[in-house]
C-alpha cells in the first residue's frame, strides 16, 4: 500500500498544482524525485511531527490541498493537538496518510504501534476515514480524496485481502445468509480472515473501506438482531455508531478489534493478529461464543 501511495501521489503532484506534500523524514527518500521537481510543494520539516501538521494547516489556508504523511503514531497520536487546532478548529482540510497501522511494525516496539488512531480522529468533526483492504484500492481512494476539500484520513497497512474490492464506501455484501441472519461488518484488510471465520455459519458478511462516515443506512437495511464488528484498530471504535443507528430496535453488538491490553512484546504482525484474536481461528471462537444458537453449521 505504501508503494502504491508513493506512486500515485507522485503523479498527482505533477498533474495538479494545488496538491502539496508535507513530510517529517518518513518516506522522504521515496519522494525525493518529486521533491526535486516540486520543491515549493514537497516539504520535509524533519522529525517535527507537530510542525508538520501546522505547516499543512498553513498550506490549506492558502488554497493548497496538503497531504501529510508519516507512521500512524507520529501522525495522529503525537500531533493530535495540532490536528485538532490547526486543521479541525481552523476549518481547513488536509489528507492525512499513515503507514504502520495498528501493529504493522511490532519489531520497532510500542512507539510504532497505534491501534487508537481512528478512535482519536473520531473525536473530531466530519472527518472521512478510509481503510483500504488491498494495495490496488489505494490509488483511486487517494485520487478521489485529494480532489476534495474535506479533512480525511487514509490508513495504509501491510495487511491485505486476496483481491481489491473498490466501491463508494457503502457496506458491500460479500456473503448473504438471508433475511434476519447475524451481520458481520469487516473493515479494510480483515475481510479475508472474517470470511474464513464464519465459513459454514449462517452469517451475512458486509465489507467497507470507509468506517467514517459509517454507512448507517446500509447497516439498518442489513442488520437483524446480532451485529459483529471486525475492525483492524481499537476494539469498539465503531460501537457507538452502530448503537445510535439501531437505537430504535433490539440488537446486540460484538466489537472485535485490537485489545486495550499493552502486550509488552514484539513478535510479528501475524503474531499480534493471533494475540488479539483477529486471525480466522480467533475470530471464529469469538463469533461462535457470541451467537450461541445461531452458530450451528449450515446444512
UniProtKB/TrEMBL annotation:
Query: Where do the Transketolase-like pyrimidine-binding domain residues begin and end?
Result: 1-162
Which terms in the Gene Ontology molecular function aspect does this entry carry?
Answer: magnesium ion binding
Q: Signal sequence: where?
A: none
Superkingdom of origin: Bacteria
Which InterPro entries does this chain map to?
A: PDH/Transketolase, THDP-binding, Transketo_C/PFOR_II, Transketolase-like_Pyr-bd
Q: Which Gene3D superfamilies match?
A: 3.40.50.920, 3.40.50.970
According to UniProt, the name of this protein is Transketolase
